[in-house]
Amino acid sequence: MLWRLITFTYQANILAAAYYGWTMFSPRADRRTGLRGAVVLYVVVAGVIWNLLLTGRSTGYTPANFLLHVVVPILAVADWLVIGRGHGTAKWWQPLAWLAYPAAYLALALVVLNRAGRRAPYYFLDPGSVGLGAVTVNVGLLAAGFLGLGYVLLAVARPRSANA
Fold first, then answer.
1. Assigned domain for 109 exists
2. What long-range pairs does 25-31 form, CB within 8 A, spacing at least 24?
3. pLDDT digit string (tens) for 87-135?
């Protein structure tokens, strides 16, 4: 069971649970647009990657997988669009800052686990499974995907002007 904590999905969902739990007790937490955006980005990316690349390599749509990879991302996006809109403005540089955690996760997955003799938790990050060249391409695609989706979240979070 503890091995699951090394997966990005579990870490992103624990972060989401902590953030949304915090918002229940601190009214000021809702104004942390940068943190909210990071949480939404991480659970959405985890959900998209699992649904596109990993369902065939997992136990499928079990209740836990459905919750972690479908329900939580949908709720996070709904929160971002409905509740979070207008609760402070996300800054242009925040999607760049949101890359820090995935980069740290990548370092853990590629360097630490591989040097410890463990496989990376995802086949597309495992040089032994797909080769170093493919891992390099995959890392570039993931970085571009994270950044692009971050800027999409930023764009849709902007409050509409009264003239629109």
1. yes
2. 30/83, 30/84, 30/87, 31/87, 31/88
3. 667 788 999 999 999 999 998 888 777 676 677 788 898 888 899 999 9
Domain count, the chain: 1
Question: Would residue 163 count as lying in a domain?
Answer: no
Inter-CA distances, 130 with 33, 88, 98, 125, 127, Å: 37, 42, 27, 8, 5
Q: Is residue 162 part of a domain?
A: no
CA distance 160 to 26: 26
Residue pair 142/46 in contact by the 8 Å Cβ criterion: no
Domain annotation covers residue 164: no
Q: Give backbone dihedrals phi and psi of 128, rounded to 5 degrees, phi first.
A: -70, -25
Range of the domain at 117: 6-157
Measured distance CA(9)–CA(50) in Å, rounded: 9
Angstrom CA distances, 106 to 5, 51, 56, 139, 155, stand at: 14, 20, 22, 8, 26
What is the CA angle 43-71-15, rounded to 5?
35
Q: Which residue has the tokens 């370092």?
A: 107
Residues belonging to the chain:
164
pTM for this predicted structure: 0.89
Structural tokens at position 103: 């980069």
